[in-house]
Amino acid sequence: MHPEDLKPEQFSGYPPEARKLALDCLETFRRLPLSFLPSLLREVIEFDFKFPVERRHLEKELGNLRSLSLQDLRAWFREFTEIKLSESLEKLNWIASPAQFVEQLSAHLWATHQMDAFRHAALGYADKLRAAVVPEPPTSPRLGIAVIGQGVDVAPGPLFRKLRTYGAYFSAVNPENGLRQLLEVVAARANSNPAPYGHWYIDGGEPLPHASGVTCVSYQAMEPVRAALLARIHAETQKTGMGPEALRTLMAQLRPVELSMAPGGDPVLNRFQIKLLTEGSGTQIFSTSFVEWAAREALRRAEPLTVLARFAPRQRQKPMHELLSPGPEQVALDPVGSLVDADMGAYYNWMNQQRLPGSEKSLFLVWFENHKEAVAISPALPRGTVSTETIDLRGILSWMT
Amino acid sequence: MRGAAGVALGSSLLPSSLIARTGISARKRKVVVVTFGGGARDQETFAPDGQENIPHLLRELAPQSTFFTQVVNRGILGHYVATASLATGVYETINNFASLPPESPTVFEYFRKDLKRPASDVWVVAPSNGFNRIGESSHHSFGSGWGAQVILPKYLLGTATSGLGDYGHLLRDSYETPLYAPELSGNIFELEQLETILKLSVEDFRAHALTLSSPDELSVYIVRQLMRQFAPSLLWVTLHDIDIAHAGAYSLYIEGIRRTDRLSAEIWKAIQSEPEYAGKCTLIILPDFGRDSDEDAGGNGFQHHRTGDVISRTTWMMALGPGIREGVVYDRPVDSIDLVPTLGSMMGFTASLSRGKPITEIL
Lengths: 401, 363
What we know:
The structure holds two protein chains of two kinds. Chain A is of the alpha/beta class. Chain A is built from 17 helices and twelve strands. In chain A, the strands form three sheets. An eight-stranded mixed sheet of chain A has the order 5-4-6-1-9-10-2-11, sandwiched between helices. Chain A has a two-stranded parallel sheet with strand order 3-12. In chain A, strands 7-8 form a two-stranded antiparallel sheet. In chain A, helix 3 (37-44) runs antiparallel to helix 8 (98-111) and helix 14 (287-302) runs parallel beside helix 16 (335-354). In chain A, 39% of the residues are buried. Chain B is α/β, with parallel strands linked by helices. Chain B has one domain (2-335, 345-356): Alkaline Phosphatase, subunit A, CATH 3.40.720. Chain B has helices spanning 2-5, 18-22, 55-61, 79-88, 107-115, 153-161, 192-196, 202-209, 215-229, 250-273, 310-313, 339-347, and strands at residues 8-9, 30-36, 65-72, 122-125, 149-151, 234-239, 281-287, 314-320, 328-330, 334-335. In chain B, strands 1, 2, 3, 4, 5, 6, 7, 8, 9 and 10 form a ten-stranded mixed sheet that branches. In chain B, helix 3 (55-61) runs parallel beside helix 10 and helix 9 (215-229) runs parallel beside helix 10. The two termini of chain B are 24 Å apart.
């Protein structure tokens, strides 16, 4: 099956809005190379479950492709057309299952030493797209907050080593009511700049009470889903012939209701949360990995104005087959190791925030929970400085803006 | 790194051959290869911020070694297939997660067939079931029977303990492949051979295992047993603790690096203390590849090696032993598949189907 042979009825299995979008673009799809089109369809087929910002991006990308002449399209996709595909790839049902095609394409690219060429083509396409469709700046500066070290009395070493050079280090933070102050700031931002999925609170444990305009995801709330997923993984791995690729494909196809997620609720957020567990690595077993990945995906996909990510102690390392087996036994925690994980996770949260439009004005705060140490990054604060002044978190945040 | 390790930039001209410098003929030379099947990035190892994690590699081994700062892996960045590429000198394209042998002849087969060596003279100690076919290729020109015996210490311990007792910490799997344990086949070393071949009772093995803290420690324990019992001329060990990074826990990744650092030094000490090895063994240490950079938005930093970016493809290598120049660094790029023909030149066999080139700086 080649793109030029595409027919409208082949999109009948797509969700309603995705189908409409695909049919509107059918002529353009027919002109795209097979090494590229399934990657685009993988986004299109998810359209009904995408965040508003993602929808706008996809619509603009498709609008741009539709506006290109045949000659322009050839120039844009020249490198993709030079990628050699196998007959077995061409025979796959890449219209109905674009994600599975992309997975197998990836294996093919590695095996045929074309990964570097594909990577070059993909980066080139992204550059051209960024130039043609200028990213939207945020309506106000983004604020990322990371709270790390819950349950730790003494840090095992200096904290925030990667972030200090980008901001101001505070060594005399008054920790009293720190979490409450941070949640109040998040609520105030959600109130003054209301936007669907614009303000997030991610917790590695049990979430604290938060404002209604804030999107909340927590490791604790996902417990039944994680247990159902681990049980499913465990059952599948006992089957003959089940390999990692087959399992990954199966996990990618799981729907919220199949993993004990209550029907109803917000389908977009439900799908997002399921993907955190089925597409993330380590998110099923380590709360620190869950928080880092959830923040990364929220930033990448929803481009929120505010993210408060609070890391919590993860379970201790055990043999992987035990970690992946749902069991009733008491979970032993590793707070100090989790602090080290979260310190790095906070750095990644900041880096992921900086990849978004408006990064030159973005703000970031990381705090050692219930302790006196924090780093604040803001255009208003001098980089690489140290403040020994006693100040609470609200005070630091006011200095940042 | 040069300042911290006290090493200097090397020139490409050597005064004489390895044999001339040492007086050890190629056929009497022994080689131990240590690979890290769980790449580690420069920033957590030899770069200034990472040096605290590798005190042994940096301050004990690097000053005694010839060090290559750029070893580039241009193949598939999966640990089994990359180790197979290292062991064949050809970029293998076998399924990383399948129970398949390498398609090109392995260094073990070249070594044994060319030099007519017995099976006891070459061994592989590997981390998990996924590596059970690494010892012998499916290449038609070699047929069967010229490969290395493969010991999977975790498999042995699992069999010895039947899942009982407090051994869980030694039976950790790689996070990349916990979902798939291929059925074992090939030259697998079975539990009963512990006693008959390694002269190690199952009880002693179990008891010693309780004193260890990780699967790689178990591997190094087996390495020492092999050195004492057989003194193999070619011994290949793949360490894997670092690969816990796939679970996203940075602290566990760093712990893995620190343990690997310590175990590398222990292997070097064992080489120097065993009479069969002291003064005639070359130790080669290299990760199979790196991990993704923090800057590449397509990856998630240290966690994986999926982007194929420069950081994930580039790693380092050190060689130590008699005749190897000490405290010398080479910045020229070396290819991962250059290892096998280099071993061939060192030990006197021809890696006829390898696509790599001998690394002249250590020959």
